[in-house]
Design goal:
alpha/beta; 8 strands; eight-stranded mixed beta sheet; globular
Length: 235
């Protein structure tokens, strides 16, 4: 059972969006919890009904320049919760996520966390990719943004927020966090949309992701890696 001190912690959920009308209602519904004090939609110019749907579902909507890092930093700047949970607009949190987040961040030595990954696509391929991702996340303490990263607002401010980069903003944030403590992975999975894998194909998407990570570890600038990503999508 959670202590009273743990129960008093509040969570701000920050969701960067652009044209997420297809997914945002369900994402907000699954992100609603007694310990969630606000759901912040940070929109960078949706041409569909993303903002309207979010407002109808009780979320707060603010505007931001394009760029996921800029959007998440804008949301964090106005967030009121003790904990910040950064969530993609097409990703569903697991049931009971709030208690899991609060419990994990109260563990000694844990500076931040994320959920395990599940991909919303049929077949064995997505299961294999998810399993490999989860092994990597735990072994290297290197989760990605579609796993729902969370940390205290104090820690986020202390490390300077997301670096203003066009790519790998989640990896760069996690690498900063690892210098201060452990990145823990919740066993329960966040279910992310399979649209990226469906559009580009499972193998190509995985290869692009791995090439960009290896390039980053080799010291290649993110601007050049972004061009790799664009080329990979067109091939």
């Amino acid at each position: 059972m959670m202590s009273t001190a743990q129960k008093t912690l509040s969570i701000s959920i920050i969701i960067p969006t652009r044209n997420e009308a297809e997914h945002i209602a369900q994402t907000i519904e699954r992100a609603t919890d007694d310990n969630v004090c606000e759901i912040l939609i940070v929109d960078c110019g949706s041409a569909d009904e993303t903002q309207k749907i979010a407002l109808q579902r009780g979320a707060r909507v603010i505007s931001s320049p394009p760029g996921r890092a800029r959007q998440m930093n804008a949301g964090a700047a106005v967030a009121q919760g003790d904990i910040l949970l950064f969530l993609h607009g097409d990703t569903l949190l697991p049931l009971g996520f709030a208690d899991l987040v609060i419990t994990l961040l109260n563990k000694e030595g844990v500076i931040a966390g994320a959920f395990s990954l599940a991909i919303n696509l049929p077949g064995t391929g997505p299961l294999i990719v998810s399993a490999m991702t989860n092994v990597r996340s735990r072994a290297l303490q290197l989760p990605y943004g579609d796993q729902g990263l969370f940390l205290t607002r104090h820690t986020f401010i202390e490390i300077g927020g997301y670096p203003d980069e066009p790519l790998l903003e989640d990896v760069l944030l996690v690498r900063r966090l690892k210098q201060k403590g452990r990145i823990a992975i919740v066993k329960s999975s966040a279910l992310t949309s399979g649209r990226r894998w469906r559009e580009l194909g499972l193998v190509r998407t995985t290869l692009i992701n791995q090439a960009i990570i290896l390039g980053h570890l080799a010291g290649i600038p993110t601007q050049r890696l972004q061009s790799w990503y664009r080329i990979g999508k067109k091939v």
